[in-house]
Amino acid sequence: MRAFACPQCHVFVAFESDSCADCHTPLGFHLPSKSMLPLVDGVANVEGHRWIRCTQSVTLDCNWLAPEEQTDFGRGRCLAGSLIRREPAADDTLAREKLVPTSAALRRLVYQLDDIGLPIEPFWRRDGGLAFDLLSSYTSGEKVIIGHANGVITIDLVESLDDYRESLRIRLGEPYRTMLGHFRHEVGHYYQNILVETGSGAAEYLTECRALFGDETVSYSDAIARHYEFGAPADWQDDFISEYATMHPWEDFAECFAHYLHITDTIDTCREAGMVLHANRVRFSAPHDVVPLDSYADVPVERLLSDWRYVSLLLNRANTAMGKSPLYPFEISPAVVAKLGFVHRVIRS
User: Fold this and answer.
1) To which H or E segment does residue 126 belong?
2) 293 and 329 in one domain?
3) Nearest 5°: CA angle at 202, between 210 and 119?
4) Which residues contact 124 (CB under 8 A, 6 or more apart)?
5) Domain residues for 132?
6) Residue 84 forms beta bridges with which residues?
7) Are 119 and 140 in contact (CB under 8 A)?
8) What is the pTM of this model?
9) DSSP string covering 72-126
10) Bridge partners of 46?
11) % of the chain at pLDDT higher than 90
12) Residues 121 and 177 in one domain
């Protein structure tokens, strides 16, 4: 995530901010320029075009801008907000409360997808386009299954409750479970479908994808039943990034896709903070200075993962110094490096 600055006084501004904490200038996030823009009477002028606050600025605490002249642009919402196809009713106040942090995680996802150049085609623009149903099983009394189908990603808002999510994380043996993690995993299914299975490069990608991840045409329902009855194989760490990835080739790809987004976003954030590892200043053996790149688009995935090894080492130690679990408690085996390399090539091309 980029480190943003107030355009007036140049102090740090958080990604979710709608004003500068120092000079109190009203601000809005402008996705095309990846910048915070000052607002005058609620308007930012960009190359002769007027951008105004998203219509969800109050109800969802959204600080993004939407083009004023496109009044039909996803119901007057910003791009991220316009991707929400279904949401709790206005009188479902408890669910609407949980929609606020969930939509914030969605905006982080959309920012990253746009930043690394992935296509974002909304459902309101074409059938099968990207959409999010953000629903609550807690308040509706209906079962909400997190998943993806034909471009629609469904998320249960109850996952925003820390105690509920943590209990599931422990019961399912997951070292990492967050709302942003759910978004990154499920959108991996969407991009596997449109880029690997049906896209212009599908003939080439699909063969390689099956060689790495397995045949995605095997029964998914049988795979689920087998996974929850017998669990992951004993030596799963040799070939998979997580236990859940062992369930089915689709889940393996989605898990690797999510981890690719975890790694790139976190290392970008460290770079934006000016973090550099000086090999001659650490007490352990480091082969060279580690200077995160502005972009890893044109280098092999091995360069990204080499830098990540040392960045994650620091972040894990920082977390444990605070008495928490390591930030990134995963081992990346050679087999997983190859899978992440495939995801890297698909995304960057």
Assistant:
1) none
2) yes
3) 115
4) 74, 82
5) 83-189
6) 132
7) no
8) 0.94
9) TTTTT--HHHHTEEE---TT-HHHHHHHHHHHHHHHHHHHHHHHTT----BTTTS
10) 49
11) 86
12) yes
